[in-house]
Structure formats: C-alpha cells, structure tokens
C-alpha cells in the first residue's frame, strides 16, 4: 500500500472515529429525558436503515410523527428492555431448532439467512431466489412463511412494508407518503385474521404479504422497488397475543362492523390517491370479510382476493387436469362428483368457479346451472351442508343439498365426511378446511369406493401440518392410480415399500397452490392497464394454466407445472389476462404502450411485450450526481 493510500486511510479512519465519538456522546444525551436532542439529517426509512440512529420499535409516537416514521413500524411502542428481551427469546429459540413438518428441520434458519440477504442486497437476494426457486420457495413461502409468522415478534429485525392501524384513523392519507417509493405497482395487504391455516396471527401476518410479494418479484418480474407489503392492524382476537408483552401489534380485540370497514375504506382511498395505478391483492382475510370487501371494492378499484379468486382458478385448472388424467376430454368435467371439505373463503371460491365452469360447458342455461350444482357435496365443521341447516351461511346456501335428495342417498344434515365419501363415491375429494389429517385413514379407505377410474385427492390446506393428508398417506392407501395435489409441497412418494397395486412405482405430488396464478394475474392487470379485475380475466388465467400441461404429462398424473417453470407459466398467464382485457375493451395500456398499440400486438408480440416488462435481477451501473 502506498504512503498516500495509508494517509487517506488513516484520515478517513480518524474521521470515522471522530464521528463515532460525537454520535455516542450525542446518543447518551438522548437517552435521558430532557437532555439536548441529537440533530439528524435523515427521515423515514433512511433512519431505520441507519444503525446509529435506528431505535426500531422503541421510537415514540411523537418521534414517529416528527421523523415521518408513522406506518413504517408496527404500532406497539416498546422500551429498550423489552426489545432486548424479544431478541434474547429469539436467540434462545434457535437452539431448539425450527421444525415444520417432516420436511426440513432447518427451514427457519434458512429463512433468516435469506432474509438477511434480502435486507443487504435485493438484487442478489432475488438472483438466488430465482435460480433456486424450487428449493427456496418453500422457505420464503409456504410452509416456512407460516412458521415465520408464528415467530414474527422474535424474528422482527428491520421492518419491511407498512402498517396501518386502527390508531392511524384520519392519518392514512398523509402517512402513505412516508413510503419512499414514488411508484408502487403491487400491494399485498392482510389484516392477519386467517394466516394460511394458522388462524388469527394479528400483526405477525405481515410475513404472508412479504412472502407473496417475493413471488411477484421472482415469478412475475415485478420490480422489487415497486412492491409494498401491508398489514392493517385492527386488533386481534388471538388471546395469546393479547396477553403477550412482546406482541408488536395493537393489544385490543378486532374492530367489527362499520368501524372495521371505515379503516379498510380509508386505507384503500389513501393508497389509490397516492398511487392511482396500484393493484391491491387482498390476502388471508377471514371469510366473513373476504367476500364483503371483494364485493365492496371490485368494481371501483384494481383489486382482487387471492384466496377467493386465485385459489379458485388454480383448483379449476387442477380439476380439469384430473379429468384429462383419466384419459377423458375436459368437456367431461360436469360429470365429476366432487366432495369439498371446507366452506370458507377458499372453499366457496372454488365451488362458485367450478359450478360456473361446468355450467358454461353445459350451455350456460338455468338448467345447466342446476345440473352443475348437483355435482357438489360440501362438508364444513358441522358436517354435510343441507337445506335443513339452521342459520346457513349465505355464501354456502347455493351448495346446500336438498333434504329429500339426501334422504334418497342415505345422508342427513351434518353427516360426517367419511359418511359422505362412502355414499357419494366421489371422483374428487378436495380439502380447504385448514384441518390437518382430516382425510384420515378411514376417509381415504372410503375413497377406494370411488367410481372414478382415477380418483383425485386435493389436500390444499396450508401449511404442511394443516394439509388434510400427506402424500404418503394418500398413495399408500389408494395406490399410485390417483391424482394427488397439496397446497404445500410434498416430495414424490416411492411406492415400492408399500407393495400396492398400480401401474407405476412413484406417486407424483403436485403443488396445488394459488402461487401458479396470482403473479400472472397481477402482471397481466398491470401491463393491460385495466381499471378492474373481471371474472373473464380470472377465467382466462385459469384456462391458460389448465392448458399448460401436455397430454403426456397429465397422463402421468402431473397436473401442475414444476415450480422451476413458474416464470414461464406466469408470463403466459399475464398474456392471457391482457388478451382478455383487450377483448373486454378494458385495456388502457401501460406506459408507452397505449391501448391502441396493445390491440395491434400479435400473440408473439404480446408475449414479447410481457417478457420485456419483467424485471430481472441484474446490477445496474451507478453514477453519482449532486442534487
Ligand atoms: N392451496 C391454496 O392455494 C390455498 C389454500 N388455502 C388454505 O385453505 C384453508 C382454508 O382457508 P379459508 O377457506 O380461508 O379458511 P376458513 O377458516 O374461512 O374456512 C375453513 C372452512 O373449513 C371448515 N372446517 C373446519 N373444520 C372442518 C372439519 N372438521 N371438516 C370439514 N370442514 C371443516 C370450516 O367450517 C370452514 O368452512 C387454509 O388452510 C388455507 O391455507 C387457502 C387459499 C389458497
Ligand atoms: C396459499 C394461500 O393463499 C393460503 O394458504 O392462504
Ligand atoms: Mg392466502
């Protein structure tokens, strides 16, 4: 090292040391009430990302307002003792090792490493994620994201996204400007009330918004600088969290009725005022709000509900795949007998979409709808849903079986799942119940009576421990001549040890998860410039996914693409959504591609347009310029 370099180094070192002394002495002033404050020349995220000034959750509310931090931190203010206690609890937990199902005992440790990279270098993070999507999707998304949400207060380090709380009423329109990005394309918002199948996790649910947006970046190439995870904290009804001194959210019961809607209305108005072209994906809202909010906003805002609409499309694609896997044409779908366990936001979303698809295939008449309706038997926590049920949920009412018809079938209101399966002998058993192990040995044994040449088991609940059955359970009882799909990934099953009858030795596990649709739907909405998300666009997305698999693949029982092809399928789905938006005359264009230019694009041109607008993780060349 030359003498000049040494001098430069020593002078910069002394500057650094000087700065450190100044800051540490200044910081000691601020710790005692009434002392001279430290002057900072930063605001907002810049402060949170500066290790000298950052106090994390210990910023007081007045400081948060003074420094444009409102909304950038969870609403519960902690003191430094509590912060340390939270950190130590998490550190100790590492020793116990994280477990989520039999698959990967180190999943949470991997999440931490990836998360640290995410905080340090986004480009590198997404490069790693895209190149290893098969390995790391189960870490940043289901199942590990469920574990992350459950342990969120311990894992919380650097905030990611925005928090709008009941305490922020009247402030949202201004606090939305605390987010530093001038442009936001995609928001995933949750109120934490039903995170995967894990119930009310309150503010910890923000992990699901972050995980979904990771897939938006990795699969759809949405620019990571233009995504915003959001948590709306209206309280929690989780008694454990309400009593936990380490909980980061509001410690009050959830707002209800008009008060709840007012908060969500204010949030929607605020984000669409600042970013009129943003798309808002509603995620993991409990069913009672999922449907109401969807109806409330779907005709006036660019929004959709992933659990209701995304899941429906993925299930339809899978069900059509299951028909093809029997060597039958898709048009035979209306003949399938389907038992659905779970009548929440996801189950009802699937039922409505499946009925519509069948009815369309049958000619879209009233009789077609009635006939389609009779193909479903719905079982919820109280058993088989029939017209005999008191206080039936209005969303489930169209699928309630007629009492007389059920008498003929030997089934009663509230009949158990195993009774229903035994009597109906369905082609498909589909679970969206959030009850792990619901497809018990008895239920799977009953599926042996299925009249299908190739019965299908969809254990779609997440995360892994909430799956209605494991792949091994399904294949070991039913043999390899079935179609199996699950919401969280399972490894293919080696059937040789089970010595079961069948025509092969490997049970193929499909991942039936809305991740195959929502990134493409979001990208298609963005690039088409449609002001709303229509049923036609969702249908086009589902059909595109259904048609993606080749005849050869479906005959092997492979009804969804491997996740390694998620970027390709997402691109095609986006193109299908744009095409539909053009046909519905809703496409307004995006940036320099106006509506007229968009209409002129050929199929190939459209794919190219989508591809060219997908962000890829490459380092840009940086140049410094003074303001
Ligand atoms: N694979 C995927 O892409 C998706 C999976 N899901 C999963 O679906 C599950 C349910 O989600 P939501 O519908 O929003 O929840 P929800 O809580 O609104 O609905 C759950 C439903 O299951 C029923 N249920 C409870 N116990 C039952 C039992 N023993 N037998 C039959 N039914 C029972 C309840 O009565 C209710 O109708 C969650 O685990 C979630 O992770 C949700 C969306 C997408
Ligand atoms: C996959 C998903 O959206 C869920 O389990 O809620
Ligand atoms: Mg969800």
From TrEMBL:
A divalent metal cation binds at residues 283-284, 307. Keywords: Metal-binding, Mitochondrion, NAD, Oxidoreductase, Transit peptide. It is found in: Mitochondrion. GO terms for biological process: malate metabolic process. The keyword Metal-binding applies. The keyword tRNA processing does not apply. This is Malic enzyme. Belongs to the malic enzymes family. It comes from Thlaspi arvense (Field penny-cress). Involved in the regulation of sugars and amino acids metabolisms during the night period. Residues 308-582 form the Malic enzyme NAD-binding domain. One of its GO terms (molecular function) is malate dehydrogenase (decarboxylating) (NAD+) activity. Its main location: mitochondrion. Its cofactor is Mg(2+); Mn(2+). Divalent metal cations. Prefers magnesium or manganese. GO terms for cellular component: mitochondrion. (S)-malate binds at residues 194, 462, 513.
């Amino acid at each position: 090292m030359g003498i000049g370099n040494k001098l430069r180094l020593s002078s910069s070192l002394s500057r650094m040391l000087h700065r450190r002394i100044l800051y540490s002495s200044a910081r000691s002033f601020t710790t005692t009430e009434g002392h001279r404050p430290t002057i900072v020349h930063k605001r907002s995220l810049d402060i949170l990302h500066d290790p000298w000034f950052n106090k994390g959750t210990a910023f007081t509310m007045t400081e948060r307002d003074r420094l444009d931090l409102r909304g950038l931190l969870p609403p519960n203010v902690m003191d430094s003792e509590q912060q340390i206690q939270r950190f130590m609890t998490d550190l100790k937990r590492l020793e116990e090792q994280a477990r989520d199902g039999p698959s990967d005992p180190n999943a949470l440790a991997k999440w931490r490493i990836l998360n640290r990279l995410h905080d340090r270098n986004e480009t590198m993070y997404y490069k790693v994620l895209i190149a290893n999507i098969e390995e790391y999707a189960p870490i940043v998304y289901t199942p590990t994201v469920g574990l992350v949400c459950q342990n969120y207060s311990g894992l919380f380090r650097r905030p990611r996204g925005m928090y709008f709380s009941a305490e922020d009423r009247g402030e949202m329109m201004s606090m939305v400007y605390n987010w530093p990005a001038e442009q936001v394309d995609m928001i995933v918002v949750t109120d934490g009330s039903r995170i995967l199948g894990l119930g009310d996790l309150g503010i910890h649910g923000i992990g699901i918004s972050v995980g979904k947006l990771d897939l938006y970046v990795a699969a759809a190439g949405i620019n990571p600088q233009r995504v915003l995870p959001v948590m709306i904290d209206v309280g929690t009804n989780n008694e454990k969290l309400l009593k936990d001194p380490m909980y980061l959210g509001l410690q009050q019961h959830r707002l209800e009725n008009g008060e709840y809607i007012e908060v969500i209305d204010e949030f929607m108005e605020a984000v669409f005022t600042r970013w009129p072209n943003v798309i808002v994906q509603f995620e993991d809202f409990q069913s009672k709000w999922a449907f109401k909010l969807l109806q409330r906003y779907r005709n006036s805002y660019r929004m959709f509900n992933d659990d209701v609409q995304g899941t429906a499309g993925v299930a339809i694609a899978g069900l059509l795949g299951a028909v093809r896997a029997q060597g039958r044409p898709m048009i035979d779908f209306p003949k399938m007998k389907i038992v659905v366990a779970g009548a929440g936001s996801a189950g009802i979303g699937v039922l409505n979409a499946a009925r519509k698809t069948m009815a369309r295939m049958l000619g879209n008449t009233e009789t077609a709808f009635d006939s389609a309706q009779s193909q479903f038997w719905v079982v919820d926590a109280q058993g088989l849903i029939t017209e005999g049920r008191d206080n039936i949920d209005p969303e489930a009412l169209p699928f309630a079986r007629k009492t007389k018809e059920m008498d003929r079938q030997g089934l009663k209101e509230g009949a158990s799942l195993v009774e229903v399966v035994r009597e109906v002998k369905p082609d498909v058993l589909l679970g969206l119940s959030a009850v792990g192990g619901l497809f018990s040995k008895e239920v799977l044994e009953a599926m042996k009576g299925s009249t299908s040449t190739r019965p299908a088991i969809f254990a779609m609940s997440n995360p892994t421990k909430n799956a209605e059955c494991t792949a091994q359970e399904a294949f070991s009882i039913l043999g390899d001549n079935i179609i199996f799909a699950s919401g969280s990934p399972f490894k293919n099953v080696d059937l040789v040890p089970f010595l079961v009858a069948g025509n092969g030795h490997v049970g193929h596990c499909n991942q039936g998860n809305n991740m195959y649709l929502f990134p493409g739907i979001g990208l298609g909405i963005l690039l088409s410039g449609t002001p709303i998300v229509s049923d036609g666009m969702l249908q086009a997305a589902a059909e595109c996914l259904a048609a993606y698999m080749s005849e050869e693949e479906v005959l092997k029982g492979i009804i969804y693409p491997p996740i390694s092809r998620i970027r390709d399928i997402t691109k095609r789905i986006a193109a299908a959504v744009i095409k539909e938006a053009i046909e519905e005359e809703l496409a307004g264009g995006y940036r320099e591609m106006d509506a007229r230019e968009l209409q002129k694009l050929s199929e190939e041109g459209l794919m190219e347009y989508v591809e060219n607008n997908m962000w890829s993780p490459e380092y840009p060349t940086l140049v410094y310029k003074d303001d």
